[in-house]
Amino acid sequence: MHRLHGRTPTLLVVGDLMLDHYLWGACERISPEAPVQVVDIKNETTVLGGAGNVLSNLASLGAKVHVASVIGNDENGNALVEKLHTLGISHQSLVRQEGRKTSKKSRVMASHQQVVRFDAESKEPITAQSEAALLTHVQGLLDAADAVLLSDYGKGVLTPSFTQRLIALSNARGIPCLVDPKGKDYSKYRGATLITPNRAEAALATNISITDDASLLDAGMKLKNNLDLTYAIITLSEDGMAIFDQNVEKIPTVAREVYDVTGAGDTVLASLGFALACGMNITEAALFATSAAAVVVGKLGSATATLEEIIQYERSLATPSLHEKILTAQALKPLLSAYKEGTVIFTNGCFDILHAGHVRYLEKAKSFGNVLVVGLNSDASVKRLKGEKRPINPQEDRAFVLSGLNSVDYVVVFDEETPYRLIQELSPDILVKGADYEGKEVVGSDLVKDVRLVEFLEGRSTTQILKKAQQ
């Protein structure tokens, strides 16, 4: 069972609420009045947007959700309250400001493509009176919260003074405070637990052009250190996300199909908050968030992901296609960090002509834990070890055949004569070698918690197979 199954943390969302309005139709002609498409509207839908999409995502995950915000005393405000009621979320901590327009974004969609968007909203900062009322509501909700999520869409609710006060109140209670930021000046988020800008937003806020890993590290560390954050996270679209703690850790993307990225940032904020509120560490939370984002970008329009959908998606990743099992050490390392201590197994070899002895050996190795990583000697490495006539099969073929075994979870090709550097990088828990290493020093034994030796199947070896073939 997934460790988040049945968990119901309480999360407080504060930020810019809005309505996302969709007009769905088809286009079959151009207007005679102007060179524009004529869209024949077939359907109309309205969902919560902005910080409201964070609420929808949290509700889908099964969290208990509270919301505090400022909206207008208007028809759109009334519609927004109705949408909250549908989700079972109270509107008691919403402040109604006279003369303010509740944000509504309307999109015309023709054959699943967005044709135009038009907005009706107020973007000026909320009044001092509204800010004071909002702070009073927030203070009444904080004691029950496991995490606070600030969803800033730049519409004026999260003023600098209010945001700093809310972060201080959260910190005083030891409650994680996560921010999806907006704009160029991030000083109002100082002291938060973490912020989640995308690559372009981080570049704008730090004045660093993010073009490679070095500039990414500079930007992430600048955000973390200058804003006194516990972590900074920069989302990297198809490249996943980067976590900045003492060092940088990259979490690869897991999306297989992308239909619409609308609301993906809201999903990341919601799922990170949900996971941290349930006691996950930052790496585990980030991996969960990438799975949640992968689910929603596979849907059209501002979407949400249920915990069951995320679990199902993660299970599908646990049984990847054969090519997806063959990874570099850099790509594999963050995936292994999600496994519990004591469960990652490593072994290595040439595996030139796969035979029954290899299969039995790998099955036994896998039985010692949950995930088996096989380090595979490259062609150049095999030549140095076995001579110029080896390998018989190139490394691409050897890796592909290994990845077809149920016992093998991942294959990593290495070029050195020993896998020491690879073991050092992957940090497995258990190292497995053949029983012929009894009484000998096993390369990498100083890097792991345990070494297991496995008996070979008698009479089975690549050398014997080659001798028989030559005869």
UniProtKB/TrEMBL annotation:
Keyword Hydrolase: no
Keywords annotated in UniProt: ATP-binding, Carbohydrate metabolism, Kinase, Multifunctional enzyme, Nucleotide-binding, Nucleotidyltransferase, Transferase
Gene3D superfamilies for this protein: 3.40.1190.20, HUPs
Reaction catalysed by this enzyme: D-glycero-beta-D-manno-heptose 1-phosphate + ATP + H(+) = ADP-D-glycero-beta-D-manno-heptose + diphosphate; D-glycero-beta-D-manno-heptose 7-phosphate + ATP = D-glycero-beta-D-manno-heptose 1,7-bisphosphate + ADP + H(+)
Binding-site residues, ATP: N198, R199, A200, E201
Domain Cytidyltransferase-like as annotated: residue spans: 346-437
Pfam families: CTP_transf_like, PfkB
UniProt-annotated catalytic positions: D266
InterPro entries referenced in this protein's UniProt entry, alphabetically: Bifunc_HldE, Cyt_trans-like, PfkB_dom, RfaE_dom_I, RfaE_dom_II, Ribokinase-like, Rossmann-like_a/b/a_fold
Stretches the record annotates as Ribokinase: 1-320
Listed SUPFAM superfamilies: Nucleotidylyl transferase, Ribokinase-like
Pathway involvement of the protein, from the record: Nucleotide-sugar biosynthesis; ADP-L-glycero-beta-D-manno-heptose biosynthesis; ADP-L-glycero-beta-D-manno-heptose from D-glycero-beta-D-manno-heptose 7-phosphate: step 1/4; Nucleotide-sugar biosynthesis; ADP-L-glycero-beta-D-manno-heptose biosynthesis; ADP-L-glycero-beta-D-manno-heptose from D-glycero-beta-D-manno-heptose 7-phosphate: step 3/4
Family: In the N-terminal section; belongs to the carbohydrate kinase PfkB family. In the C-terminal section; belongs to the cytidylyltransferase family.
Assembly, per entry: Homodimer.
Function: Catalyzes the ADP transfer from ATP to D-glycero-beta-D-manno-heptose 1-phosphate, yielding ADP-D-glycero-beta-D-manno-heptose.
NCBIfam families the UniProt entry points to: cyt_tran_rel, rfaE_dom_I, rfaE_dom_II
HAMAP family: HldE
UniProt-recorded name of the protein: Bifunctional protein HldE
